[in-house]
TrEMBL record:
<keyword id="KW-0028">Amino-acid biosynthesis</keyword>
<protein>
    <submittedName>
        <fullName>Glutamate synthase, NADH/NADPH, small subunit subfamily</fullName>
    </submittedName>
</protein>
<dbReference type="Pfam" id="PF14691">
    <property type="entry name" value="Fer4_20"/>
</dbReference>
<feature type="domain" description="FAD/NAD(P)-binding">
    <location>
        <begin position="153"/>
        <end position="476"/>
    </location>
</feature>
<dbReference type="InterPro" id="IPR028261">
    <property type="entry name" value="DPD_II"/>
</dbReference>
<feature type="domain" description="Dihydroprymidine dehydrogenase">
    <location>
        <begin position="24"/>
        <end position="140"/>
    </location>
</feature>
<dbReference type="InterPro" id="IPR009051">
    <property type="entry name" value="Helical_ferredxn"/>
</dbReference>
<keyword id="KW-0314">Glutamate biosynthesis</keyword>
<dbReference type="InterPro" id="IPR051394">
    <property type="entry name" value="Glutamate_Synthase"/>
</dbReference>
<comment type="pathway">
    <text>Amino-acid biosynthesis.</text>
</comment>
<dbReference type="InterPro" id="IPR036188">
    <property type="entry name" value="FAD/NAD-bd_sf"/>
</dbReference>
<dbReference type="InterPro" id="IPR006005">
    <property type="entry name" value="Glut_synth_ssu1"/>
</dbReference>
<dbReference type="InterPro" id="IPR023753">
    <property type="entry name" value="FAD/NAD-binding_dom"/>
</dbReference>
<dbReference type="GO" id="GO:0016639">
    <property type="term" value="F:oxidoreductase activity, acting on the CH-NH2 group of donors, NAD or NADP as acceptor"/>
</dbReference>
<dbReference type="GO" id="GO:0006537">
    <property type="term" value="P:glutamate biosynthetic process"/>
</dbReference>
<keyword id="KW-0560">Oxidoreductase</keyword>
<dbReference type="GO" id="GO:0051536">
    <property type="term" value="F:iron-sulfur cluster binding"/>
</dbReference>
Amino acid sequence: MGKPTGFIEYLRELPSELQPDSRIGNWDEFHLPMPEEKLQTQAARCMDCGTPFCHTGTMLKGMASGCPINNLIPEWNDLIYRGRWREALDRLHKTNNFPEFTGRVCPAPCEGSCVLGIHNPPVTIKNIECSIIDKGWEEGWVEPEPPTKRTGKKVAIIGSGPAGLCAAAQLNKAGHWITVFEREDRPGGLLMYGIPNMKLDKKQVVQRRLDQLEQEGVKFICNTEVGKDFPTENLLKEFDAVVLCTGATKPRDLPIEGRDLKGIHFAMDFLTANTKALLDNSKNGNFISAEGKDVVIIGGGDTGTDCVGTSLRHGCKTLAQLEIMPQPPLERAPDNPWPEWPKIYRMDYGQEEAAAKFGADPRSYLTTATKFEGDEKGHVKAVHTVTIEWQKNEQGRFIPSPVPGTEKVIPAQLVLLAMGFLGPEQPLLDALGLERNARSNIKADYGKYATSIPGVFAAGDCRRGQSLVVWAFNEGRGAARECDRYLMGSTDLPG
Ligand SMILES: Cc1cc2nc3c(=O)[nH]c(=O)nc-3n(C[C@H](O)[C@H](O)[C@H](O)COP(=O)(O)OP(=O)(O)OC[C@H]3O[C@@H](n4cnc5c(N)ncnc54)[C@H](O)[C@@H]3O)c2cc1C
Ligand code: SF4
């Protein structure tokens, strides 16, 4: 433990950010680096509390408590306090292949279960993680490390999101030849084409790791959808094992009156085309502009927030975000104690930016859309909404019921549906003849990752349903370990 009294002496401090009204003028990341002395004092707040919960990574009431990849947090906090950055980086890479991604986009369940957080603001774990790896890259400490020996075994990984990339990195480390198939024109999955550039820079941060993986011998085949551009039946003929990391990409729809009007899009179509335009420096026919429009975003989660931030950067005229759930409390409710993930009201970056531009958080809680209204050209012009109450039905399930007299009409020339995802797309899984669970996810036990077909493994959102980058890391690493065991009879890969 660095400084026994650090948590008493120092207050929690996060890095400065560019102000919302200035950052919405561009697509750059907006967190500014923190000076090293400040990071050392922040690391000194770690109490080395004997039984740390921050790295446990368990599920409590359906939410992660502690770090799902079991990052060695107290150890690297201590090393940072002592200025031993290189060793801290080595510790971080033991459990995390790509800390620059989680250090930027993870919601940090570790901080929700930090023991200091019982009475004080928790340690700034996520920012310390990000600073360690950013310094590692700056100093040239992160270098390609191709395996010294090859096993001659070939593994196909389908999908190049965080689960696929972790599986590729680990299996390559074990000496297998790795081919990653990706249907998009660039690898990265939602790291590339979901999470927007201002949260996770594509050219500097994502591409840098993709280049490193290639230098280590991983082969990426893009613009290739397995099941369409590459025959499914060739997978197990050409490869010794397969790891499916295809994500949970089937969006939830809202089949209400007017759904087929023009100007109503799934959030991912909007976000993907936006990042593509940014990277290619050209807007193709799929680009959807929010410029000068009244925008309504349906869904108050991460995807909705990214639509808020993106619409603001396009220069939308007004912005409203509908959320069907109630506004969370400002502090932990009695039935949500530490070390559970604190379900409290937060303004994410998009809402902060909307508040700076339009004066208030754009979210309306307990609100749903009832109808889309169109103009004479078949284009959406308004969204009809109503406030709802959650009431128990006869079976004891909570269902939403409209509150009479609360109907509203909001102008909208662009509507973005960001209501979550319903699991993986099914055609490839049908073609392989894989067993599914009741939620249409691939059936493969957590920790084993083996599907109903020998030699075929599944990891990430296609196995567990829509989740987080850090869980995709956990599963990609775990599936790699089990795949290596299948190929070699035993494995030295960690979980
Ligand atoms: C807009 C948005 C924002 C998010 N923000 C955050 C965040 O801030 N923090 C966080 O922790 N989580 C966030 N998430 C969730 C997180 O991104 C996912 O949980 C994570 O990316 C899942 O990883 P994955 O590797 O399982 O799948 P994905 O990242 O979905 O990757 C799957 C890949 O498989 C490819 N693919 C599918 N089928 C085929 C096929 N047949 N052939 C070839 N390729 C195929 C897809 O094109 C895709 O690239 C966000 C999700 C969305 C949608
Ligand atoms: S990966 Fe996420 S949960 Fe784990 S230490 Fe980093 S921020 Fe915390």
